[in-house]
Amino acid sequence: MDPSALADAPRLVSRARRVADPEFHAVFEAIETPRVVWGAPGESTVVGGGAAATLTASGPDRFASIRESAQTLFASGDVHAGTEAARPRLFGGFAFHEAATDGSPWKSFPEARFVFPRVQVTAADNGTWVTVNAVGPDADAADVERRLDEAVGTFGGLGVAGRGHVERDPDPRPDRPGIVSRRRTTTREEWRAGVEAAVDRIRAGDLEKVVLAQALAADLRADAPRAATVDRLRNRYPNCYPFLVETDPAGAAFVGATPERLVSTRGRTVETDALAGTTGRGETPAEDEWLASELAADRKNAHEHDLVVDAIRDQLAPFAASITAGERRIKRLAEVQHLHTPITAELETNTHVLELVEALHPTPAVGGLPPAAALETIRETEPFDRGWYAAPVGWIDAAGNGTFAVGIRSAVLEPRAATLFAGVGIVADSDADEEWDEIQLKYRPILNELEDGD
Length: 454
Ligand SMILES: C=C(O[C@@H]1C=C(C(=O)O)C=C[C@H]1O)C(=O)O
Known about the structure:
The chain has two domains: about 5-155, no CATH class; about 180-450, Anthranilate synthase (4-Layer Sandwich). Helix content is about 30%, strand content about 35%. The radius of gyration is 22 Å and the shape is globular. It has eleven helices and 23 strands. It is α+β, with helices and mostly antiparallel strands. The strands form two sheets. Strands 1, 2, 3, 5, 8, 9, 10, 11, 12, 13, 19, 22 and 23 form a 13-stranded mixed β-sheet that branches. Strands 4, 6, 7, 14, 15, 16, 17, 18, 20 and 21 form a ten-stranded antiparallel β-sheet that branches. The ligand C=C(O[C@@H]1C=C(C(=O)O)C=C[C@H]1O)C(=O)O binds near residues 423 and 442. It holds the Pfam family Chorismate_bind.
């Protein structure tokens, strides 16, 4: 690296210590804002608070720009984590489109934004770790050690009966806020017209697949309780990726539990998933099985799915020494079942996770094919801004490893309001009304957190 870049780099100090396991909900309430939450099957759950540094970028170079800023930030590290789980990480995400995201509810979400938290609480297999970070010319190890002592006092055993420093709330999971009114971005007639126009384009041959989405704005009786919402999502969807990203200063939060991983890297090993093709859940185990086998045998869904597998292979090919697609299987969630193909690759050389994010986003699971025609169709058809919906959300570490999920099954929470997003893959023989029903199912994970039974 250029030595002058190192001299210009901000100083980063990070220290970590193990604490008695605290309770998720209590950590979330005690940590400073803006907060981030990240979870993934097989990964530790992280709650981050505050911003020791914030990286933002826009336009088509937003992936490269964040990658460079991240490398500069981590280049100056005085880091003592003690264990891999506690290493400091950047958390954030990108906008789906490269055009500005200044429309409601995305006003406070730049086209790329990553936060390096001041405090990171990581619940890992080897215990819970508190990491304290500082960045800047004045970042000082003694100061960070003092803050770490304080943070260990605050978070160690927090909210766990008998060990806690605060009394556990008798009901740490407050009720759902309740929905006062709902507005769809798209009427059923508009939806039919949009899907039929897309199908015409596909039959005319200039498009193979496009994912069309809708948004649902809800006015709430009260603020959605963020800790309870993300805690319930992570428990109800254990094979998914729960996330929450708060922004400054507007206080909005992008929240969800997505079943879809975009990519994770560890050294030269890459894991990703093709997830596309959907059916509902049955009332009984037998009906569940029947629906799953019908999905597995369905030609339309297989086509929708195979396009994604092939595109991921093509997009990884320039980087990979080998690519292996596993057997196609069913990913079963609380409300839907998907066709799922796990894909692994070995890279030719060490590659920053954001290079792969840039190469893969958007896969035809949320964009379409060919990509340019699909993105044009999305822009022409959807009367709202996707913002961070269906875009990469995840983390990066100093080594350039990371995991990114695709921000679906998601919503933006604002004071007494929420905006939900859901989309479906359209191919030549898609039926607009069936796709409409699938969108309603995909709103369910978040709607369940908002509706209070009225
Ligand atoms: C776009 C969404 O989901 C995507 C579309 C799917 C489909 O059309 O079958 C399945 C999983 C996701 O790749 C969403 O949930 O909003």
